[in-house]
Write a structure and sequence with these properties.
By secondary structure, the protein is of the alpha+beta class. The protein has three domains: 49 residues; 162 residues, Jelly Rolls (Sandwich); 73 residues, 3-Layer(bab) Sandwich (Phage tail protein beta-alpha-beta fold), CATH 3.55.50.30. The protein contains six helices and 21 strands. The strands form four sheets. Strands 2-1-4-5-8-11-12-15-16 form a nine-stranded mixed β-sheet, covered by helices on one side. Strands 3-6-7-9-10-13-14 form a seven-stranded mixed β-sheet, with no helix packed on it.
């Protein structure tokens, strides 16, 4: 008697799963009931979706392509992106493994040895976005020019932000992270959340799924739940407020703008590059632009903006681009 096996998902099932995941990452309203209906229609659908989700969590890339700018953001081309897998080989050492995935050429700063009683430091340079796998299977992605220290031990996961921004991809059921920046601290429980320094404060954002603030110091006075697309500022702002689209999509390496002020867009593009964009007239900062731009290509950004707003481009210095009215 031969043993029967369930057929594996078809190639089309994997493609469809990738499209569903793409829509979920883009934050499409009302998607979850439709997705659940598709998942329960065939066990192979759920298998294909779970595989697409696993690949995305490990590499930040949705398999079978990652949409154009039709409400989603196409992933920036990567020259050498590094996703460093960090796992405890013993109580006193780590194993570093994984795929080269950093989108600027150069040697990456690898973390030092990790023990349950030590903090590992992770850092990115200007123009670099990098993902690290932690000892417990969770992952952190650092934005450009960022630095954090992490301690993972039994019953405790602590992350301190020295500068910049980090996205935390939490292992399901692993518990909360305590995140600190300066005098601000929050204990956050959720599958995915962003934490970053904003002025003298620290913000916690929910880019994909709702997250829970189990504690905050100083108290925010905000509801403990942060809904998708919202953020709170610890100690400074009581009510949740929206996250800009570019601040939801930053891990893709693209600057996604939807009616954003040009001044804000210029400030964002300058964070990723040593060649800076400057506005020749302060009044231009209020002009609105939409589109998706490679965060590490200020020249292409300036050319696109100049075409959209009928501006001229000046190059007073090799590392400076000035946008001015004609």
């Amino acid at each position: 008697m031969t043993e029967s096996h369930e057929p594996s998902p078809s190639r089309e099932s994997y493609r469809t799963a990738s499209r569903w995941l793409n829509r979920r990452v883009a934050g499409e309203p009302g998607l979850e009931p439709k997705l659940e209906e598709w998942l329960v229609a065939d066990p192979r659908n759920r298998e294909a979706f779970d595989e697409a989700l696993r690949v995305w969590r490990e590499t930040n890339v949705i398999p079978e392509g990652y949409g154009g700018f039709d409400g989603t953001v196409m992933r920036a081309p990567f020259l050498e992106r590094k996703s460093t897998h960090v796992a405890l080989a013993s109580a006193a050492a780590v194993v570093l493994a994984g795929l080269s995935t950093a989108w600027i050429v150069g040697k990456d700063a690898f973390p030092g040895l990790v023990t349950p009683a030590q903090a590992a430091a992770y850092e990115t340079r200007i123009g670099q976005i990098q993902t690290f796998r932690l000892a417990d299977g969770s992952a952190i992605t650092l934005d450009t020019n960022s630095r954090v220290e992490v301690v993972v031990s039994d019953g405790s996961r602590q992350l301190e932000i020295a500068k910049g921004r980090v996205r935390i991809e939490n292992t399901v059921g692993a518990g909360a992270f305590t995140v600190t920046a300066g005098k601000r601290s929050a204990t956050v429980n959720g599958e995915t959340f962003d934490a970053y320094i904003a002025g003298t404060g620290m913000r916690i954002a929910a880019p994909r799924f709702p997250v829970e603030l189990t504690s905050a110091d100083p108290e925010t006075g905000a509801p403990k739940r942060i809904d998708v697309g919202a953020q709170v500022e610890i100690g400074l702002r009581a009510d949740p407020f929206p996250v800009a689209r570019s601040d939801l999509e930053w891990v893709s390496g693209m600057l996604a703008l939807d009616g954003s002020r040009l001044g804000d867009a210029v400030a964002a593009i300058n964070r990723y590059n040593r060649t800076t964009v400057r506005l020749g007239d302060p009044a231009l900062a209020l002009r609105k632009i939409s589109g998706a731009f490679r965060a590490n290509d200020p020249n292409a950004f300036a050319q696109a903006v100049a075409r959209m707003l009928d501006l001229k481009i000046l190059r007073p210095k090799p590392a400076e681009i000035v946008l001015s009215a004609r």
